[in-house]
Specification:
The complex is a heterodimer of chains A (about 400) and B (about 130).
Chain A (H helix, E strand, L loop, with lengths): L1 H8 L4 H22 L5 H23 L4 H14 L4 H15 L6 H11 L5 H8 L3 H18 L8 H24 L9 H16 L6 H15 L1 H4 L19 H13 L8 H13 L6 H15 L3 H15 L1 H9 L7 H11 L4 H14 L3 H23 L1
Helix pairs in contact in A: 1-2, 1-5, 2-3, 3-4, 6-8, 6-9, 7-8, 9-10, 9-11, 10-11, 11-13, 11-14, 13-14, 14-15, 15-16, 16-17, 16-18, 17-18, 18-19, 19-20
Chain B lengths: L1 H13 L2 E9 L9 H16 L3 E7 L8 E4 L3 E4 L8 E10 L2 H9 L3 H4 L3 E6 L5
Antiparallel strand pairs in B: 1-5, 1-6, 2-5, 3-4
The chains are: A mainly alpha (about 400), B alpha+beta (about 130).
Chain lengths: ~400, ~130
């Protein structure tokens, strides 16, 4: 909503647009609680928001001594063109992301700002996505907003060159948006399906536009389709995460898997193999029919991926795949070299690898992971594992 | 350490050969796949992509009148695909593999065999440059 308001009233007024957006939702929740949800809720929201915006400008112009008539006539033109169709909304959101990804700011700042303004990320969520401190992100966002406001630019049509040169950053933003929805580290709902579907919708829009229909866009879209296909099966009715082996395959969305296959093939031009291509390949194997060589294929993809995009998370995922191919003992040797002692994922992995080898070590590492993780759902899953192992241990003693 | 296996793999990739898989169908009626058949074929292609073995997703070659002609010696031109035999070429993809046996294994997994029959010719590609 902030994006649509900005499209009409200018990026200069971002903060006002945000305030108005939240006021509108607040009013909606009060009004709808008493009077029920209107027939066309989207239209209701936009009408209220638009009116609030007009009121705001009226007040400002009176305060500044400007002629009210001028302001009125400006907005009457907009009124006729204020449409709510989905196309415009997706368009505005994308236009906003592209506008915010202005090279006057650093890439990290661009992405942080897009996540905040467009996707409603909290500063903490952004800090997590970047593995940074909250203070750093706060300062970065403030600087970036100031730069944009000084530029004093409107959400106008970008040139073809601008769109293509900003595409990489935009794709990265959508990738982070999807990831946050899929893995949500700080939110209590482990999976925020709405973020995933937003990210997918916007990426689809990019794939359908000739200017941005690139191999990377299609690879990212394939990745999102594959991951989304398993969302229903990932949590049970109590909201606990079900690990892969325990998921009910029947709940996987087959049509999303088919679409994933389609975009994965479409993304192949024989020359380019981006990080999105490799991740999509890995996601493919997780949703494909059971195959004896699956983990071998996944390991090979991780081997290539860590050359392109090094991150502790990837290294750990690779070791998990390694353990499926070469066994837990060898994998442990690889894992212990990493010494990522402050990472909950590191301890979670070690806990898993030790499970059949040394229960005490396993429990030790899982316990550390519980202390380090910020995700409530993950805590629950880990605690369950610890309980299971403790029971195993006491059975051993008795036997 | 960890990167050793990645580098070994990259070297292995560079040494791979390319193979064209040429699809032939028996009957022009078999040419248009149903949506389910299309999904199966897409899944086959996707699995090759996910093994990083698809070089060229290739193309379908239309066999119908108006889209196919055969040119022979002495400027003889006939309508349709090469008609000495009933079979016709319907398309191709290019994969990479260590050797032809591996490429053959990839071809064996293609769903056209249980969908409409036909055959797949596997030919090693000799790169011109």
């Amino acid at each position: 909503m902030t994006a649509v308001l900005c499209r009409h009233f200018g990026l200069k007024h971002i903060e006002i647009a945000e305030d108005i957006a939240s006021d509108t939702f607040l009013k909606a929740s009060e009004h709808w609680a008493i009077n029920g949800i209107p027939e066309n809720p989207t239209a209701w929201l936009y009408t209220v928001a638009k009116n609030k915006m007009k009121d705001y400008f009226k007040r400002i112009s009176v305060f500044e001594g400007k002629i009210t008539n001028n302001v009125k006539s400006d907005f009457s033109i907009e009124e006729n063109h204020f449409e709510f169709y989905e196309q415009i909304i997706a368009d505005s959101q994308l236009a906003m992301i592209f506008a915010v990804c202005n090279p006057i700011n650093t890439t990290e700042s661009q992405i942080a700002l897009a996540l905040q303004i467009l996707c409603g990320f909290s500063v903490e969520e952004i800090a997590n996505a970047f593995i940074s401190k909250t203070e750093t992100i706060k300062k970065r966002l403030q600087r970036a907003r100031n730069n944009l406001q000084n530029e004093n630019f409107q959400l106008k049509l970008l040139s073809q060159f601008q769109i293509q040169s900003r595409l990489d950053t935009v794709l990265r933003t959508l990738y982070l948006l999807f990831n946050e929805g899929y893995f949500s580290k700080t939110n209590n709902d482990l999976i925020r399906k709405d973020l995933c579907s937003e990210a997918t919708r916007l990426t689809l829009f990019l794939a359908e536009n000739p200017l941005t229909d690139t191999p990377q866009t299609n690879a990212l879209l394939a990745l999102m389709c594959f991951q989304s296909s398993r969302l229903e099966a990932r949590t049970d009715s109590r909201g606990e995460v079900i690990l892969f082996d325990g998921q009910d395959r029947r709940l996987w969305d087959k049509s999303l898997i088919h679409r994933g296959n389609y975009y994965l093939v479409k993304a192949t031009d024989g020359k380019e193999t981006s990080k999105y291509h490799l991740e999509a390949g890995i996601a493919y194997w997780h949703t494909a029919q059971p195959d004896n060589n699956k983990w071998q294929h996944i390991l090979e993809l991780y081997n290539q991926l860590i050359l392109v995009d090094y991150s502790p998370q990837l290294i750990l995922n690779r070791i998990f795949a390694y353990s499926k191919v070469h066994g837990q003992k060898d994998a442990l040797t690889e894992a212990k070299k990493l010494q990522l002692t402050e990472s909950n994922y590191y301890h979670g992995l070690l806990g898993y690898l030790y499970a059949d080898i040394n229960i005490d070590q396993s429990i030790y590492h899982y316990t550390k992971a519980v202390k380090l993780t910020k995700s409530k759902a993950e805590k629950l899953t880990l605690i369950k594992e610890i309980e299971r192992l403790s029971n195993e241990k006491s059975k051993e003693r008795k036997g | 350490m960890i990167f050793q296996s990645s580098i070994q793999q990259t070297i292995k990739n560079i040494k791979m050969k390319e193979f064209a898989l040429i699809f032939r169908l028996n009957d022009i009626q078999d040419f248009k796949p149903s949506p389910e058949q299309m999904q199966e074929r897409m899944a086959w292609l996707a699995s090759i992509v996910a093994q990083n073995k698809l070089v060229d997703k290739g193309n379908t070659l239309l066999p119908a009148p108006g889209s196919a002609k055969t040119v022979k010696p002495n400027n003889v031109v006939t309508d349709g695909p090469y008609t000495e035999i009933k079979e016709f070429v319907s398309g191709y993809v290019i994969v990479k593999a260590e050797n032809i046996d591996e490429a053959v294994e990839i071809a064996k997994a293609n769903p056209i065999f249980h969908q409409v029959g036909g055959n797949i010719e596997v030919r090693e590609v000799l790169k011109r440059n």
